[in-house]
Write a structure and sequence with these properties.
Layout (H helix, E strand, L loop, with lengths): L1 E7 L6 H18 L2 H9 L4 E6 L2 H14 L3 E5 L11 E9 L1 H8 L6
Parallel strand pairs: 1-2
Antiparallel strand pairs: 1-4, 3-4
Length: 112
């Protein structure tokens, strides 16, 4: 079991902003998972990987694939209080789900 978080590299987020957006994405996708998946992932150590995303379009495409595979996922839009314009898509979390299922969606991406 794992979760992959895809963070955009094309919008110039600072390290703190990036960390916050990754955390938002992780929690949002976790909340969309059913009780069994949440329990299994928590008991397995909550494995996560953070990957590089290149555009808003890419994140939406990956989310559509995850949806078609029945994998919990969440796209994060920034509130716009600091570095980014309100509504800017910053990150996507895919999972928790089995490693192989998550890899079918995000396996071609590079580690952040």
């Amino acid at each position: 079991m794992k979760q992959a978080i895809v963070a955009r590299t094309d919008i110039g987020m600072g390290q703190g902003k990036l960390a916050a957006q990754v955390a938002h994405a992780s929690l949002s996708a976790y909340e969309k998972a059913d009780k069994q998946l949440r329990k299994q992932w928590k008991q397995g150590g909550q494995k996560k990987v953070v990957l590089k995303g290149e555009s808003e379009r890419q994140l939406h495409e990956l989310a559509a694939i995850a949806d078609s595979e029945g994998i919990p996922n969440a796209i994060v839009r920034d509130a716009g209080h600091t570095q980014l314009e309100p509504g800017t898509v910053t990150a996507l979390a895919v999972g928790p789900a089995g490693d192989d299922r998550v890899d079918r969606v995000t396996g071609e991406l590079s580690l952040f």
